Each structure stands twice: as C-alpha cells, then as structure tokens.
Amino acid sequence: MNMKKTFITTCVRSISLLVAFVACAQSVPPSLSIQIISQNTLNGVAGDFVTVQGQITNAGATTLSDVTTYLSLVDTGTKLPVDLEDWSAEKGLYIGSIDAKQTLPLSWKIHFVKAGTYSLIIVAEAASNEVPQVSVITHFNVAPKKNLNPGQVLPVALGTPIVLLCILFVLSYRRKVDG
Amino acid sequence: MFTHIWKKEIRGELYTWKSLLWLLISSLLFSVTCYLLLTNKELSLLDQTELLWLLGKVIIGVALLIVIVDASSIITIEFEKETAESLFISPVSLTDFILGKLLAVLTLWLAIFVVSIPYIIVASAGSNLAIPFLLYTMLLGTLGVLGFTLLVFAISLFFRSSKNTLTTSLIILLGLSIPAVFSTTLKNDVVSQIISRANPVDNIFSSLDNILVDYQTSLIQNWQFIVPLVAFCLLALIILLFAMRRFQKHGVIQSE
C-alpha cells in the first residue's frame, strides 16, 4: 500500500515537473529571429534575378556570437534540395556577433536557373544556441524561358551542311578543271 | 617565309576534300546537337542558358578534337613522306616552319568557328547572349587551340611519327576533358580544385558557365579562367621551344 502511494506521488511530481518545463520553454521566446521583408512569393522567368530581403534580430539580453545565416532551397516538384551553386553567389553569410536588441539586414541575390516551383528558407545559427532558427518560407515560381524557337533551327541545321557540301563540290570541280 | 608555308598548307590541306570534310562533319555535329537541344521534348526543357553552355562545350570540344587530329599529322607527315629533309635544305628556318604550320592549324580553327556562328546565333535568339557567346567562344577557343597545338607540335618533334603523336595527344585531351565534365560536387577537395584551376579544358568550360549561366560577361569577371589558359599556352610554348632545340641538336635525320 505504502509502495503504491510512493509510486503515485513520484508520477504526479514527474508530470508536474514536465508540465512546468514545457510551460517555461514556451514562455521563453528564442533570442534569435529572422523576418522576411520581401514578398512571400516571388515569380519570374528562368534567367531572372530576384532579391530576397530579410532581417535578423537578437531579441535576447546578451550578445550572440558566431552567428551564421545560410539558405536552404528545395524543389517542391521533386521534393529534393537544390544545389545553390548557380542560384546564389553567396550561399551563406557570416554575421559574427549581434548585440542585444540589435537588428541587421540580410539580402540575397537569387538567380532563377531552372523552371519549377521552389521553397526557400533562411537558417540562422549562433554558437550558444543548440537549435537553429528558420525564417518563414519564400516561394519561387519560375516559369520556363519561352524564347527558344525550334522553328528557326531547322533551316540552319539543314542549310549549313548543305552549303558546305556545295562548296566541297565546287572546289572539287575547280581542282579537276585546273588539272 | 612562314607565310609561304602557311599558304602551301592552306592550299594543300584546307583546299581539299579532306579538310572540308572535317568542316562538314563538325557542321553535322553542331546541327544534330542544336536540333536535339531545341526540339527534343526533354532536352528543350533545359533553360536557354544551360542549352547555350552545352552548345558552347560541344563547339569547343569538337574544334579541339579536330584541331588536335590535324596538328598531329601536319608536322609528322613531313618526316613520314621524307619531305622534311628537302624542306630544311631550302632556306626555311625551323621557326618559320613551325609558325607556318601553326597558322594553318589556327586557320582550320577559324573555319570551324565560322561554321559554328549560325548555330550560336540561332540558339541564343532572344537572350542577349549572342555577342558574348560569339566573342568568348572565339577567345577561349583560340587560347585552347593555341595551347594544344603548341603542345602537339612539341610532341610531333619528339616522336616524328603520326601514330605516336596522335595517340599521345588524344590521351592528353581525354585526360584533361574527363575531369572537366565532372560536376562541381566532385571537385570540393583541395586537390581537385587545384587540378581544376590548372586544367585548360576545365577553365574553358567554367568560363562559358560563368558567362552563359551566371551572366558574368566582362573580362574582369573571367580573368580567373583566362589567366590559367594564357599560362597553359606559355607552358606549351616553353615545351615546344625545348623540343625545337632538341630537334636542331639531333638534326632532321635522327640517328637510331
């Protein structure tokens, strides 16, 4: 009977501690936050450049050091991450330290390389934070470039070898005539 | 005197079925590539910039292959047909001889470039990239062709045989081309990056990528690719000068 009482007491205490911890965790907001200033959805044609703008804020009371921000781009069609090589010259921005209550601007020039739909997030990490902070998603709708004109290629693809062939025959004929 | 050899080569090589057949083959290759890229359902989904980059790689790749095959025989044929001896009895210096042959090879490259112009214009219609594409194909192709030709001439003077020169030259071209088509994710380590920086084929392809995909069209934005290409040409020239010195020391008729 005594053991049962002890077990119930321990369970109640554990649950109380857990609830207190969760409540405490929810009440303390993360010190680092990223806001996107540019539009949530950016549209364009393959080859266009757009700028994603945001700002990073240290809402905490202490200075955060070794802050790094980087981009994460996902092709929502294939559900696969995209290699940023041609999309952005700067894949990450090392910010260093941010003072308490300080806000710094972030700006990325993005090159729409391939048609499709994509989602981009900005991730921020600080040395003292175990959990990175992420921005809201910016959606990219990239339309294919329509100036490819297959109709133009046929005259060139057929015409150039035919012209060369004609030159070949003329030269051959002239060589024969010249002896 | 070198202009005499150049004109002789133009008449003998470029004014024949054989050399024009090279141009016809390159034209057919460009036609097939261009037609497939623009009309094939899956390939035409490539964005225009990537399509242009692919076409640029095909143009310069085909040109390098044709020029290397031509350069491999243009000097060695004089030894194999035993015309070298009589040629050097006449007042023709080795420098004039090499310079005349070099101009003939560069003329072949120029002819291939002229053939590629309609394809470049058609493929880049509406992109504002036609002029940079043309100019940089000319510049990068000329540097690549010049470097490889000087190197092949040096190999020709070492071997004096078409078969050995051609085999060695093609192995060098393949050895430099294969790493150049690797994706950049395979070039993340320091050794790969150093090889990539030094590889002339890699520099040509990377510069085209920089111009056509990233719109970095000024010379300053491409110096990191052009400087290694110029260095490659200088290195090939040094090797050729060494080969010429060795050739003069050994004489036209090489003792066994």
Verbal overview:
The complex is a heterodimer of chains A (179) and B (256). Residues 23-28 of chain A have low confidence and may be disordered. With 179 residues, chain A is of the alpha+beta class. Chain A contains two helices and ten strands, in the order αββββββββββα. Chain A has three domains: 1-29; 31-143, Sandwich (Immunoglobulin-like), CATH 2.60.40.10; 149-179. Chain A has helices at 2-27, 150-178; strands at 32-36, 41-45, 49-58, 64-75, 80-81, 92-98, 103-111, 116-125, 133-134, 138-143. Chain B has one domain (2-250). Helix content of chain B is 79%, strand content 0%. Chain B contains eleven helices and no strands. In chain B, helix 1 packs across helix 6 (94-123). Chain B is globular and about 60 Å long. The model of chain B has no long low-confidence stretch (mean pLDDT 86).
- Beta-strand content estimate of chain B: under 5%
Q: Major sheet of chain A, described briefly?
A: 7 strands, mixed
End-to-end gap of chain B: 31 Å
Number of helices of chain A: 2
The overall strand count of chain B is 0
Summarize the structure.
Chain A is of the alpha+beta class.
Which helices and strands, and how do they pair?
The complex is a heterodimer of chains A (about 180) and B (about 260).
Chain A: H1 2-27, E1 32-36, E2 41-45, E3 49-58, E4 64-75, E5 80-81, E6 92-98, E7 103-111, E8 116-125, E9 133-134, E10 138-143, H2 150-178
Parallel strand pairs in A: 2-10
Antiparallel strand pairs in A: 1-3, 3-7, 4-5, 4-6, 4-8, 8-9, 8-10
Chain B: H1 2-14, H2 17-39, H3 48-74, H4 76-80, H5 84-89, H6 94-123, H7 130-159, H8 162-180, H9 190-198, H10 200-212, H11 223-250
Which labels suit this protein?
heterodimer, A: 179 residues, alpha+beta, Immunoglobulin-like, seven-stranded mixed beta sheet, three-stranded antiparallel beta sheet, 2 helices, B: 256 residues, globular
